[in-house]
Amino acid sequence: MSGSTRDIGNRGEDLAAAYLESKGWTILDRNYFFQRSEVDIVAYDGTLIVFVEVKYRSGTRRGYPEESISKKKIAHIYKAAEAWIYERRMDGSPVRLDVVTIVQEGGKAPDIRHYENAMHLDL
Q1: What CA–CA distance (Å, rounded) separates 10 from 8?
Q2: Residue 112: CB partners within 8 Å, gap ≥ 6?
């Protein structure tokens, strides 16, 4: 797939958002930034707010997408999630952090994997 890194990221996030919506989820926000921290998707699954990290790859030559989530990235997700909750005065709301990975090789259909409660959030 050609395009800028941002274009590729948007494609992955579009696929992940469509996948979550197909499960009946509501997308509340996308690409929420706080300082230098970001959450790709904020969604509501019918019972709680879910902060979703999306990792998209056009192949597995460099490993699987979930392997690229570092402790530093997790810390940034926590920071952004905490800010999102604070800004909306939703302290105490039940939340979870999920990861959606997508591998799409060539013209094949995307392989989407959803890891629920991938990292514990206690906001």
Answers
A1: 5
A2: 15, 16, 19, 100, 101, 102
Whole-number Å distance between alpha carbons of 52 and 39? 7
CA 110: distance to chain centroid? 16
pTM metric for this prediction: 0.88
- 103, 109 contact by CB (below 8 A): no
The beta strand positions in the chain, using DSSP E, are 26-34, 37-44, 49-57, 95-103, 111-119
Model confidence band, residue 100 (pLDDT cutoffs 50, 70, 90): very high
Contacts of 73 (CB under 8 A, 6+ apart): 53
